[in-house]
Amino acid sequence: MENLIVLRDIAVDFDGERVLNSINLEIRDKEFITLLGPSGCGKTTTLRIIGGFVEATAGDIFFDGVRINDLPPYRRQVNTVFQRYALFPHLNVFENVEFGLKIKRVPESEGSANLIKIPEAERRTMVKEMLELVGLKGFERRNINQLSGGQQQRVAIARALVCHPRVLLLDEPLGALDLKLRKEMQIELKRIQQSTGITFVYVTHDQEEALTMSDRVVVMQGGNILQIGTPQDIYNEPINAFVADFIGESNIVEGVMRRDYYVEFAGRGFDCVDFGFDPDQRVDVVIRPEDIDIVPAEEGMWTGVVESVVFKGVHYEIAVEGCGHHWIIHSTDYCEPGTFVGMKLTPDDIHIMDRELAEEQEAEGADEA
Amino acid sequence: MKRNHAETVLTSIPYLIWMVVFTVIPLLLVTYFAFTDETGALTMANLSAVREYVAVIFRSIWLAFIATVLCLLIAYPLAYIISRAPQRRQRTYLLLVMLPMWINFLLRTYAWMTLLENTGIINRLLGIFGIGPLAMINTQGAVVLGMVYNYLPFMILPLYSVMTKIENGLIEAAQDLGAPRSTVFSSVVLPLSMPGVMTGITMVFVPAVSTFIISRMLGGGSNMMIGDLIELQFLGNAYNPNLGAAISLGLMILILFCMSMLNQLNEEDKEGMII
Amino acid sequence: MKKRSWVNTGYIGLVMAFLYAPIVVMAVFSFNESKSRALWTGFTLDWYKKLFTNEVILSSLGHTLLIAIISAVIATVIGTLAAIGINAMGRWMKSLVLNTTYMPIINPEIVTGVSLMLLFVFIRDRMGIPLEMGFLTLILAHITFSIPYVILNVIPKLRQMDKNIYDAALDLGCNPAMAFLKVVIPEIMPGVISGFLMAFTFSLDDFIISYFVSGPTFSTLPITIYAMTRKKVSPEINALSTIVFLVVLGVLTLSNYVEAKREAKTSY
Question: Could you write out the three-class secondary structure of chain C?
Answer without folding.
Answer: CHHHHHHHHHHHHHHHHHHHHHHHHHHHHHCECCCCCCCCCCECCHHHHHHHHCHHHHHHHHHHHHHHHHHHHHHHHHHHHHHHHHHCCCHHHHHHHHHHHHHHHHCCHHHHHHHHHHHHHHHHHCCCCCCCCCHHHHHHHHHHHHHHHHHHHHHHHHHHCCCHHHHHHHHCCCCHHHHHHHHHHHHHHHHHHHHHHHHHHHHHHCCHHHHHHCCCCCCCHHHHHHHHHHHCCCCHHHHHHHHHHHHHHHHHHHHHHHHHHHHHHHCC
